[in-house]
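Reopening this one. Same input as before:
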Amino acid sequence: MACPAISVVIATYNRSRALAHAIESVLGQTFTDWELIVVGDACTDDTAEIVARYVEADPRVQFVNLERNWGEQSAPNNIGRSLARAPLIAYLSHVYLWLPHHLKACSEALTGTGADLVLGTAANISFEGGRIAFDSLRVLLQGMGEGNRWSPSDLDASVVAASCWLIRRDALDQVGGWRMSEKERAEPSQALLFRLWRRGFRIHTLNDLTLVIVTAGNRPGSYLQRETPEHDWIAEHLDNAAFASELAAHMPSTNAFDERRSPRRPPSWRRAIAGILSHLGINPRVPSIAMRHGWSRGAYLRHLRRVLGLDLTGLPGAAPTVRAEAVRRACRITIGTPVDFRAGADGARYLATGWSFPEADGVWSDGPSASLMFDVGSAPTSDLRFEFFLVVFQSAPGTAREVVIDTTRGQPIDRWTLSAPAGDWSVAVPASAWIGSRIGLRFRFDESKSPSELGLSADGRTLSIKLRRVCIFRPETK
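Same output, byte for byte:
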C-alpha cells in the first residue's frame, strides 16, 4: 500500500457516538490522501464495534485498543504517531469535527509557506438556554495569529487545540512528541506547542475556520453522557457550504457590537509580561493555570477529569479575516434565487463585514458600514440588478436614513434615502464593477445611535438597516 500524505490520529475513550461524528468528518474531507489511526485508551464501551464498521468499509481506517488506560490523550497520541506512515501528522479529538476543507487548507498552507506546523482556526460553540439552534448559538475563536504568526505572548489567543494542527512528523520527533500531564504544568497540547516555538520551528496560522469544538471542560459530567445532541446538530450542517459563514457570523469578534461589549485582546502590559516569560523559557499559560489549579504538575488534567466525570477516585483583531475567508469560500449565489438572512437560512455566507449576528427575522448592520460579497460563477457580460428587502432603524418618528452603496473597491453605485420602516430597494450594478465573477457591495450609513443611547432598550448595537432578503436578477427577466 502506498504511503499516504497525511496520517490522522484520533485518541478516544468511551464516547462512541461522538467518535462516529469525528470519523465521519475525516471521511468527508476534500483532501483524500490520508490514513486514519483511531487509538482507544482501553475503551470498555461499544467503541470497537462502532469503529469496526468504518474499518470494514474503508481500508484507510485502522483501530488499536490499548490494554492499559492512560487517562489522557498524550500516550495514545504518541502511539498513533509511532504507527503513522505519513510525513505529516494531524490530530483530531474524538469530540471535535473538522469542516470539509481542513486537511486541504492546512496542507496547501504548509507546502506554500514552508512551515513546520500549520494551525487552523476553531469555532468553540455553545448554545444559550440549552436550546440547540442557530438563533441560540454563541461562538468563540481559537487559533488566530496576527500576520499569520503564532506567539505564546498572545495569551488567550495562543491556545490552539491540537485538532487544529497539521505538523511535519520530523518536527514532532525532534521535540520528543507528547509528554504525559504529570510532567507538565500546562495542558500537554499547549506545552508541546510552546516547545515547538522555543525550538524555532516555523508555525503558520491559517486564520481560516476549519474546526468545530463543543467544549467539554465547562460541561460537568459530559463524559458520562452517551447522547451527543450538539454533535448531531453540527453533523447535520457540516456539508453545508454556508455553515462556516454562519458560525463566523456568530463570533463575538466578527461583529462590532460584541467586540465593543467584550473586547478580546488583553492589555499591552500583560502581553509584554507574557513575551518576557516566553523568551525566558516559561510558558505564559503556566502562571494562570497555577493560580487556579495549583503549581503541581498535572494539576490542570486532574481538574479537567473531575469536571468531565472521569475522576472515579476558553479572539483578536484579525478575527474579521476568518469571517471574510469563510464568506469568500461560500458566497456563490444563483441569479434569480432569493437569499434569506434569518438565522440558519444560509444568508450568512454573504455577510462579509459590519453585520451583527443573524436573528430570527434577519440581520442588523452594526456600525458605520457593512459589506456583502457575492460570486455568480462567471463574469457578468451585462448589468445585473440587486433587490434588497430591508427594515430601517429610525432614531425618531419620520426620520430618514441615508445609505451610500459602493463596491468594496470604492466604485460608487447608488445613494438612497430610506424613510419608510420597511420595503424593497433595488440597485443596478454594471458589469464593469465585477472582479471576475465576484463583487463586494458596501453600505455606508449616516450618523446613527444605538437603542440604548436613545433610551429604547438595553441594546448597545449601532443599528441602521436590517437585511431580510436579497435577490440578484437580470433586468430583462424581472
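So the earlier flakiness isn't reproducible anymore. For the record, The chain has two domains: 6-239+265-308, 319-477.
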